[in-house]
Amino acid sequence: MVDEILLKLARYPFLREAKEYVRREAPSIQELLVDPIYERARSIGVERVDNAFEKGDVGNRSLVTNGDCLMELFSYPIARMITICIDDSYLKRRYALGEAVHMYRNLIREKPSFILDLSKEFNLDARYIDEKLSIYFTDYLRYAPTRYRKWKMINREMIQGYITISSRDLARILQEALRERINQELDTMSCNEYVNQIFSSDIDRIKSKVRKLRRKIEETPIGKLEVEYLPPCIKNILDAIQSGENVPHIGRFALVSFLNGLKLSRDEIIAVFSRAPDFEEEKTRYQIEHITGVSSSTKYTPPGCDKMRTYGLCPLEERVDLCKEISHPLSYYKIKWKRRK
Ligand code: SF4
């Protein structure tokens, strides 16, 4: 019979409880990385990264024995170490998403009490209010995808500052909280040279897959957009989005309104964002339709160079001579277009 606690830690290896268990029971890093007993944990670690990259979910494996659970649990720190050594922002974002989506898919099969308990892991103030599962509105606003109508505060019941929520929606909030946590952790950790050596062939293989994808992204034409005519500011935002870097809302806004100004269709603009590792079509479509005036009463115009500077989006050190002749990124593109050949 499989140990219930071990099964929980294998399914949710990011838990503090799981980290403590690994610290207490796991072999040394050296053993974990070379001892034949942990070969299965190492191969699952690689599989987690591969699956996250290819499928957007680190994947399910059989957890019917305590041994299965242990290998699954130990594979989590290994997968993270490998991801860090690959050192690619796109892959890191993709991996974080893969772990978070995997947790969500497990979580929606759990009892509400379990999901409520797990929310403590992320310091979320979730509880029962008047026998209804609820979350404090500031925590809700931090993680809920409020761009969708269903998630807007106005469409939610609020009792004493707590938003009533289904257990499935609470699981979705936890998905976002985990994704954010893993992203932050991966960005602050550095590669262990020993891991780099042990997994060198897998690291090289995955790096090469990521490079291929990046090349494909760069070479695939984006509708009628000529990437080489883009001004440095817009090119930087585009590169950051396609690399999976965290681009602030104002950057996304500048890019969408710029592309809209070039008369790209909504589908062509969505295609630009579809290359991001954490692309969600519905969310992107909503944002684009809002900025381009399809779903709002305002059609936003793209910011000029002055505003771009105010927003911190004009890369002063990367400006080129043409930047001195214009006052709007759109003019840059149009001049480049006219001067082609
Ligand atoms: S000067 Fe204008 S066009 Fe050039 S990089 Fe800055 S904002 Fe972009």
What does this structure look like?
By secondary structure, this protein is mainly alpha-helical. It has 3 domains: 4-107 and 191-210, no CATH class; 112-179, no CATH class; 220-338, no CATH class. Helices cover 61% and strands 4% of the residues. The protein contains 18 helices and 4 strands. It has helices at residues 4-11, 16-25, 29-34, 39-55, 66-86, 89-107, 112-119, 137-143, 167-188, 193-198, 200-219, 232-243, 249-261, 266-273, 281-291, 305-310, 321-325, 329-338; strands at 126-129, 132-136, 158-159, 162-164. A 4-stranded antiparallel β-sheet has the order 1-2-4-3. Strand 3 and strand 4 form a beta hairpin. Helix 12 (232-243) packs across helix 13. The longest helix is centred in the middle third of the chain and has 22 residues, at 167-188. It is globular. It binds iron/sulfur cluster (SF4). Iron/sulfur cluster (SF4) binds at residues 231-233, 305, 308, 314-315, 319, 323, 329, 332.
